[in-house]
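Worked example

This section walks through a single chain of length 235. The input is the sequence exactly as stored; nothing has been trimmed or padded.
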Amino acid sequence: MDAVVLDIEGTTSATGFVVDVLYPYSRARFAELLTERADEPAVARAIAQVRELTGEADADAAAVEKTLNAWLDDDRKATPLKTLQGVVWAEGFARGDLVSHFYDDVVPALRAWHTAGLALYVYSSGSVAAQRAWFASSPEGDLLPLVSGLYDTENAGPKQEPESYRRIAQATGIAPDRLLFLSDRPGELDAARAAGWRAVGIRRPGEPYFEQGVGDHAQAGTFDEIDISTSRSTS
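Given that input, the structure is written out below as tokens.
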């Protein structure tokens, strides 16, 4: 392998932290963001996308906020929701209100892989801004120097579509069969494999997809179990 591409929720980090800590943090700040900062380019673009997705061209800030909260309740991976969450979270991390979560096995593995010459990328439904803040604000300090690139549903596309993985491969300049994708979601693993990538499913007890499993993909319970040379777990 030449590179490892990482999912975040359920893979490097606990979904529960995102749902129980970050979601309420953003929900409490959407109203202020939509009313006081609607002219900022990222916010304005996201508002326009919400209006387009809902078919409500004249939706005001209150209507947009209602939509965002409904999407949060449904855990919908809508790009404008992720964009606005990213804005709020990035500021929360910068202020020190938030510190990201990583499973204990993750950071040592990332450092070892990076030292071994593997390129590391992130592909998450969370926005690039949120990813950048997440990796910069870990309990072990700034991890961004380990990461060569960040991809989300806006610059790559939906995570369960093979074409998204083809875009990432093209952007990185790395042959698909030299890319290893780690995720807990079988639909994402299927899409990566359909694009010619290698894929390993991460199954952590307590995560939403643990019981469902990862289909016929190689699987690992922790990053320690992954043998990058073969892209197979030792379990």
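What to look for: Strands lie at 3-6, 119-123, 149-151, 179-183, 198-202, 218-220, 226-227, 232-233.
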